[in-house]
């Protein structure tokens, strides 16, 4: 595992402040850095008050959908008739995203503290932290941190379980994650019922992303107004966000910036720009599931929920995948489609068959056997795969295909017309 | 308390349905069948095939009718361009890996994939013939079930049936994506006593009955509503016949009795209906030998016997006989002024419940009309009746193959087949079996249910009620009846628990008789 870079002066280090400091991983080290003070403060408040503070802060879910966190918490039944559960989504399986991993690696107690505060707010007695199966090191670190904090007695009656995933991308989808915790096949569930009504084990459940919960302790310490003020553009997007930048930049890595930060600056300044002699061609700003941006859109894009939507994509999980002019977009999109075809849970027809069919068309195209009608066919299949299934895996496969054909049509046409050398697709 | 109704409009048709009703069910009431695969009213909702996508006004996305509850003021449009194109899309996806081997598929003709593709599918595929279709070999799932994975559309009805209804979860969806298939537990077989239902539930030809394999094309089958004779539960069934041979038994929905299911015992309980060794003509004894004769002659012989009968008459009847036949048989003796004994015996077997449906089981009592016989005054003291038969003047045996009867009197045998001992009879009268006549049974809960004729009776065999009503008429006990419905009307007139019921009123799902239901 790589060691984090020194923060760039234009970064706003809130979550990543202690990245690289091994001492922050320990319980003592965390307390020394002011840790668990927020939890104490939250415990002294009525749960409803905690929810209000988080609502006021404007914190929105960092897992991808950007749903207001306080509002989500407020959906839990006020009057407790059944056990309440908190699920923490640490499955981080979105290609191009690796921020939650670093939070767990360096500041496990930040997550545990946020978890305990959220559990208090929603009156949950049990919290499950569902950790991606491949995250062996973060798991070991989390296990140690949990054991230390537990023996220090910071969680009171709250039970926190670490649950290890088994490698399925779909288990990062919130209801599939709940099925997985229950020991069932990780299939997304139809909604309604929503998790707040019937989640894990059929009980009222809230599910939050790692980064979301790690942001909660500072909000409680420094106040909602402080957090709300952390914005460079849209007042609807507040706080800081970790962006996992990968691809053809000089310095890939996690960068924490205030909401509304220009994507252009993230790429050209913080990440040191493109590889020598290369120019920016395209960028996927929010993990593999969101539409691709071309160069102009990328350079005009502001990194907050509204700003990215304005440019035709989504902020998603904050996984920024950067392509330079050497990238073969048809090949890149085929790789994405193949990923979704591999990970489709097979429940919904459009997803099960559509992701695989899309992949086959793209593979043939790359092999020099595409047909002119293939592009319209791909767009039509994508239309049939969008907005019609239980979860959005199918939509996620369609998004890069549709945006890719729209923005890089000439590359597809070159393969079909034989103007490009066929690629061996293994 | 009256049920709370919600009013909605489906394809322009206003309907009122109880609160909580799913749109797909509400649509049925509006006369609209929303195409679907994974949804089945007898199973939990999965919402996975995405075939029942419909447009609902004021909702941003298409919704699946099977998982959306009807709401007040909802306007549903199943035929909008968006909904139709979404369903056409689903059909196209379902077909890309489908082998299209309809000509050799048992399901052809009753296949929902065929039906809906015909209704709203694309005329041609866009799936390049260069791409291979998914292939997996046929698997032997259990005693009567084959799995043809290539035809499977992964609707998961079979998985949900075994998990939620049979509560023996031996099936699952194995693998992911387009590699997925229905898997069976490596150490288990699909041999639950109710497992055969997965074949009926399968909307395509993926789960097949070995018993029915390549026996008939669906369009060659004639269908008759019937009632299972396998036990006293009285499951509603359909008898499928091909050229007057019963080739298949399938469940017929009845929410009060068997919902959508039948057990494998009942499913396989039909071969005897096709027996070739039937009595085809009335037989009378002349010179110590039975000789075929015509009905007037045979009836004449019986009336002569009965007219001269002494005070003791014993009837040994089958609890598989129709209520109508049992009634007229009893009337024959009751009017005689003498003493009569009527009794039946019940074959017992092992009970096999279907755990997911309350009060549904293959019952230990393997007799469809034991309750009917009881209501008509027949008793279960079979041994005593046998003893009484020894000194009786007349002994009537109604289709009871096991007749260890010794009598000094006259033996009259009325039946479908001729057991060896029946050759002692003075008269043998051929009757129709359950597949060959109309009639009713009363199940263990006192529910009176009709069954309909599925095929003609062989030779001169006639329904039991006809035989006994003719005999009664010859003895001067009222007019004979001309149909099972008329026969039942007489039952309803005479027997208190049946009062007020009629064949028309029973319909094809039956009505409870006015009897105390056993706790």
What can you see in these coordinates?
The complex is a heterodimer of chains A (426) and B (519). Chain A has 426 residues and is α/β, with parallel strands linked by helices. Chain A folds into 3 domains: 22-228, Rossmann fold; 235-324, Ubiquitin-like (UB roll) (Roll), CATH 3.10.20.600; 329-417, de novo design (two linked rop proteins) (Up-down Bundle). Chain A is built from 19 helices and 11 strands. In chain A, the strands form 3 sheets. Chain A has a 5-stranded mixed β-sheet. In chain A, strands 3-2-1-4 form a 4-stranded parallel β-sheet, with helices on both faces. In chain A, strands 7-10 form a two-stranded antiparallel ribbon. In chain A, α7 links the parallel β2 (126-131) and β3. In chain A, α2 packs parallel to α6 (108-121), α2 packs across α10 (216-222) and α17 runs antiparallel to α18 (393-407). Chain A is globular, with a radius of gyration of 22 Å. Chain A starts with 26 loop residues before the first helix and ends in a 9-residue tail after the last helix. Chain B is an alpha+beta fold. Chain B has 3 domains: 5-92, Ubiquitin-like (UB roll) (Roll); 131-274, Alpha-Beta Plaits (2-Layer Sandwich); 283-512, 3-Layer(aba) Sandwich (Rossmann fold), CATH 3.40.50. Chain B has 13 helices and 25 strands. In chain B, α2 (81-96) packs across α3 (112-120), α7 (295-307) crosses α11 and α8 runs parallel beside α11 (464-474). Chain B starts with a strand and ends in a 7-residue tail after the last strand.
Secondary structure elements and pairings:
The complex is a heterodimer of chains A (426) and B (519).
Chain A: H1 27-32, H2 37-43, H3 47-57, H4 69-74, E1 85-90, H5 99-106, H6 108-121, E2 126-131, H7 136-151, E3 159-164, H8 174-181, E4 205-209, H9 210-214, H10 216-222, H11 224-229, E5 240-247, E6 253-258, E7 261-262, H12 263-270, E8 280-284, E9 293-294, H13 295-300, E10 302-303, H14 305-310, E11 319-324, H15 329-343, H16 349-366, H17 374-385, H18 393-407, H19 409-417
Parallel strand pairs in A: 1-2, 1-4, 2-3, 5-11
Antiparallel strand pairs in A: 5-6, 7-10, 8-9, 8-11
Chain B: E1 5-10, E2 13-18, H1 23-29, E3 53-56, E4 63-64, E5 75-77, H2 81-96, H3 112-120, E6 139-140, E7 145-147, H4 157-165, E8 171-174, E9 181-184, H5 197-201, E10 207-209, E11 222-227, E12 236-242, E13 245-251, H6 264-267, E14 283-286, E15 289-292, H7 295-307, E16 312-317, H8 323-334, E17 339-344, E18 352-353, E19 361-362, H9 370-375, H10 382-390, E20 394-398, E21 410-415, E22 427-430, E23 439-442, E24 447-451, H11 464-474, H12 484-494, H13 503-506, E25 511-512
Parallel strand pairs in B: 1-5, 16-17, 16-20, 20-21, 21-22
Antiparallel strand pairs in B: 1-2, 3-4, 3-5, 6-7, 7-10, 8-9, 11-12, 12-13, 14-15, 14-22, 18-19, 23-24, 24-25
């Amino acid at each position: 595992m790589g060691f984090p870079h020194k923060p760039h002066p234009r970064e706003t280090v809130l979550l990543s402040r202690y990245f690289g400091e091994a001492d922050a991983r320990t319980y003592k080290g965390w307390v020394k850095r002011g840790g668990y003070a927020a939890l104490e403060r939250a415990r002294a408040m009525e749960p409803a008050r905690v929810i209000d503070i988080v609502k006021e802060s404007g914190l929105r879910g960092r897992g991808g959908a950007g749903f207001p966190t306080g509002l989500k918490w407020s959906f839990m039944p006020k009057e407790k008739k059944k056990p309440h559960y908190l699920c923490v989504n640490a499955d981080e399986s979105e290609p191009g995203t690796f921020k939650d991993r670093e939070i767990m690696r360096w500041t496990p107690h930040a997550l545990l503290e946020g978890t305990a505060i959220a559990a208090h707010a929603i009156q949950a007695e049990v919290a499950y932290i569902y950790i991606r199966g491949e995250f062996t090191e973060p798991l070991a670190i989390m296990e140690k941190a949990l054991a230390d904090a537990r023996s220090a007695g910071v969680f009171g009656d709250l039970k926190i379980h670490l649950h290890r995933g088994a490698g399925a991308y779909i288990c990062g989808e919130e209801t599939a994650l709940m099925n997985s915790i229950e020991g069932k096949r990780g299939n997304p569930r139809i909604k309604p019922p929503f998790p707040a009504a019937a989640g894990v084990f059929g009980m009222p459940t809230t599910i939050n992303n790692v980064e979301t919960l790690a942001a909660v302790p500072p909000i409680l310490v420094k106040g909602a107004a402080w957090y709300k003020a952390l914005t460079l553009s849209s007042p609807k997007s507040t706080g800081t966000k970790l962006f996992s930048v990968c691809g053809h930049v000089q310095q890939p890595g996690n960068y924490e910036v205030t909401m509304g930060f220009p994507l252009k600056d993230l790429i050209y300044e913080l990440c040191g720009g493109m590889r020598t002699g290369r120019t920016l061609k395209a960028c996927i700003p929010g993990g593999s599931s969101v539409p691709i941006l071309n160069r102009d859109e990328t350079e005009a894009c502001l990194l907050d929920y509204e700003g990215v939507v304005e440019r035709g994509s989504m902020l998603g999980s904050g996984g920024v995948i950067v392509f330079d002019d050497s990238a073969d977009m048809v090949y890149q999109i085929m790789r994405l489609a193949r990923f979704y075809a591999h990970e489709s849970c097979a429940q919904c027809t459009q997803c099960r068959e559509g992701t695989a069919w899309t992949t086959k068309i793209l593979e043939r195209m790359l092999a020099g056997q595409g047909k002119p009608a293939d592009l319209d066919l791909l767009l039509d299949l994508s239309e049939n795969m969008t907005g019609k299934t239980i979860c959005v895996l199918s939509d996620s496969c369609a998004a890069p295909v549709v945006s890719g054909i729209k923005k890089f049509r000439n590359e597809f046409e070159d393969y079909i017309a034989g103007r490009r050398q066929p690629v061996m697709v293994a | 308390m009256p049920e709370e109704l919600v009013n909605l409009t489906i394809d322009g048709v206003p309907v009122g349905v109880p609160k909580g009703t799913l749109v797909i069910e509400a649509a049925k009431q509006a006369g609209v069948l929303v195409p679907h695969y994974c949804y089945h009213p007898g199973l939990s909702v999965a919402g996975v095939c995405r075939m029942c996508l419909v447009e609902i006004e004021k909702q941003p996305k298409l919704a699946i009718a099977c998982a959306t509850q009807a709401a007040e003021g909802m306007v549903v449009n199943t035929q909008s361009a968006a909904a139709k194109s979404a369903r056409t899309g689903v059909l196209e996806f379902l077909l890309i890996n489908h082998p299209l081997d309809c000509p050799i598929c048992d399901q052809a003709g009753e296949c929902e994939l065929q039906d809906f593709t015909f209704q709203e599918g694309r005329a041609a595929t866009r799936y390049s013939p260069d791409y291979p279709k998914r292939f997996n070999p046929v698997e032997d799932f259990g005693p009567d079930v084959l799995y043809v994975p290539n035809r499977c559309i992964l609707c998961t009805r079979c998985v949900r049936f075994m998990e939620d209804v049979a509560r023996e979860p031996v099936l699952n969806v194995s693998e992911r994506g387009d590699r997925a298939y229905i898997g069976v537990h490596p150490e288990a077989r699909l041999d639950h006593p109710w497992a055969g239902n997965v074949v009926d539930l399968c909307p395509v030809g993926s789960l097949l009955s070995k018993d029915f394999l390549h026996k008939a094309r669906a369009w060659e089958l004639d269908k008759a509503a019937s009632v299972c004779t396998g036990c006293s539960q009285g499951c509603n069934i359909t008898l499928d016949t091909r050229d007057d041979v019963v080739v298949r038994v399938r469940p017929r929905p009845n929410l009060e009795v068997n919902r959508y299911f039948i057990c494998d015992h009942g499913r396989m309980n039909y071969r005897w209906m096709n027996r070739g060794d039937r009595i085809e003509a009335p037989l009378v004894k002349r010179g110590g030998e039975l000789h075929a004769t015509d009905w007037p002659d045979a009836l004449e012989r019986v009336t002569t016997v009965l007219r001269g009968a002494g005070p003791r008459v014993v009837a040994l009847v089958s609890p598989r006989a129709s209520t109508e036949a049992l009634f007229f048989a009893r009337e024959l003796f009751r009017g005689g002024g003498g003493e009569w004994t009527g009794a039946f015996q019940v074959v017992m077997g092992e009970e096999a419940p279907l755990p997911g449906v309350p009060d549904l089981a293959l019952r230990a009592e393997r007799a469809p009309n034991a309750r009917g016989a009881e209501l008509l005054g027949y008793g279960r003291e079979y041994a005593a009746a046998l003893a009484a038969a020894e000194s009786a003047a007349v002994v009537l045996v109604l289709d009871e193959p096991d007749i260890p009867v010794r009598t000094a009197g006259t033996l009259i045998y009325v039946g479908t087949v001729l057991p060896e001992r029946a050759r002692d009879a003075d008269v043998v009268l051929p009757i129709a079996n359950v597949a060959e006549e109309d009639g009713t049974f009363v199940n263990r809960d006192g529910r009176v249910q009709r069954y309909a004729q599925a095929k003609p009776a062989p030779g001169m065999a006639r329904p039991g009620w006809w035989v006994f009503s003719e005999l009664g008429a010859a003895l001067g006990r009222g007019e004979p009846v001309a149909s099972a419905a008329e026969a039942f009307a007489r039952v309803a007139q005479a027997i208190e628990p049946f009062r007020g019921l009629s064949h028309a009123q029973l319909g094809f799902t039956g009505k409870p008789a006015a009897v105390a239901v056993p706790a």
